[in-house]
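Hello, quick one for you while I still have it in my head. A protein chain has come my way and I'm curious about its shape. I'm sending you its amino acid sequence along with the backbone structure tokens. I'd be grateful if you could look everything over and explain what you see. Here's the protein in full, and shout if anything looks odd to you:
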Amino acid sequence: MQFTSLDTAVVLGYLLLMAVLGLWQAARIKTAGDYFAGGRTFNKFFMMMHALGTGTHADDPVGVVGAAFQRGISGIWYTYVYLFATPFYWLIAPLFRRSRYLTVADFFEDRYSRGMGLMYSVMGVLIFAINTGTLLKGTEQITTAMTQGRIPGWASILVMTLVFVAYGTAGGLMATVVVESIQGLLIIVMSLLIVPFGLAVVHGFSGMRAALPESHFGLAAPQEVTVAWVVAMSVAMLIGIVAQPHIMEVCASGKTEFEGRVGFTYGNFVKRFCALGWAVIGLIVAAMVAQGHIASLGGHRELAFGVAIRELLPPGLVGLMFAAILAAQMSTLSAFMVAGSALLSRNLYQRYWLPAEPAEDAETKVLRFGRYAGLIVVGLGVGFAFVVQGVTDALAWFWALNALLGVLVWAAVLWRPSNSVGAWVAFGYM
């Protein structure tokens, strides 16, 4: 199915709506706290959509669908590695809200030392750059597969980046969360829309089981997604979740602790439901290849999601799906940009360039600097996208850095004798 003028109209209409809605929020920004934390005024629905939108991006279905296509249903573990950590979100979120910090670097500086705060700020910006590059890489893969190269991947990245940079720079977290209230719903559409069309082509689940080997329906695979890998990565995710640089804004920007708790936990439960759809789509594409409906992907499994969209959806719905993919990307990218600008402006610019400024003058300068500091994160992410080979490679980088910093966060919370010297030794050793 080709990308039609109707699909183009749907995508352009969506981009225009998001830009207008996001820019409209700029008038509500008065202080740095408004820009970086939304004034801590969001209700449960906004917090759920913020957690879902920030935590879900197009590299998730690209990675899960591709792994499920090649390895079977066990590919779902590329996002279900967070499954066993999810119940802990109910306990974690109130702690971040209660702390009243704006960034995780504030926590590191207060609990350990100024040097540790600086270290986390630098590492946090690096993590955001890796994440941004991962998302851009996922967009490129999907666009190439959906349009068979008719629309260059760089073109979709450029247009998407211009939109989220515009409203993120102008409206900060306020604009990001309001836009995510719509984008979160589109993410659910993205996850489930293809499934009924695909099942009709492969003759339902019975046809899928007849076409694929039995190993495709096990929760672990002989290679790659093994039981040992699932256990190790699940533990790493539980350790690393508390150190994600955007965790403070996801958990602590609600009206009260309860808004953060409900939003973080249930927003991620919705993502677990969406992941079921991604895994089924991977099996559908594998069955379509086995039944001869489409040609083999030639070992390029990360094209599976884009191929499914192109082959299964009618005109109009292809555009809706593409808009949903852009929604998943932009909701996360804008959140990363705002959180990255908070680290750069509050924990680096204000801390080291404006230490003697009066409070009111510093507030104004930090807000002004923060509006543009996120562009540094975006620029680094674009560079990373050209270096990394694929989405799963980028995920491995992100998980490793998160687990490394997560050890220091858990030690600070659970072990009272932990101090800056021990933290530096542990960091250097790891």
About this structure: The mean pLDDT is 82. The chain is about 75% helix and 0% strand.
